[in-house]
Amino acid sequence: MADAVAKVARRVNDTVEEGKDSLDLSNCKLMNFPDGVFKVLKSVAENIHVVMLADNLDLHCNVLTKLPDAVADVEHLKNIDLANNSFSIPVQRLSAMPALKWINVKSNPLDKDTLAAVQTPHKCEILFTADA
Hints:
The protein is of the alpha/beta class. 31% of the residues lie in helices and 11% in strands.
C-alpha cells in the first residue's frame, strides 16, 4: 500500500515539476481516487495550477469504483481513461464537462442503465465494451 501511495505522490510531483498537461495515475493499484490530490493542487503553489489545467487524466488499470466530484472542476480536461477498473459510472455527469472530448470506460462492470446511457449520443466520444 505504501508503494502505491508513493507512486501516486511521485507522479503528481513529476506532473507539477515538469509542467505536463497529463496526470498519469494508471497502474497505481488505487482502490479509491485520491481526491486530496485535487484539494492540495488547488491550494499549494502557484505553478500547481498546471494539473488543474491538465488535458488528460489516465486512471486505467486500477481498482477504482468512483471518482470524486472534484474531477468535474478540472475544466480543461479533454480525455479521461478509466479502462480496466470497477466503475459503474454516472457518464452523464462526466460527459457534461465542457472541454471533454473522450472517456474510456472499457472493461468496467457497467450496469444496464449505465451501458444504455453510454450508447446514447453525447457531446464527447465514450469508449466502452458492450459485453461488460
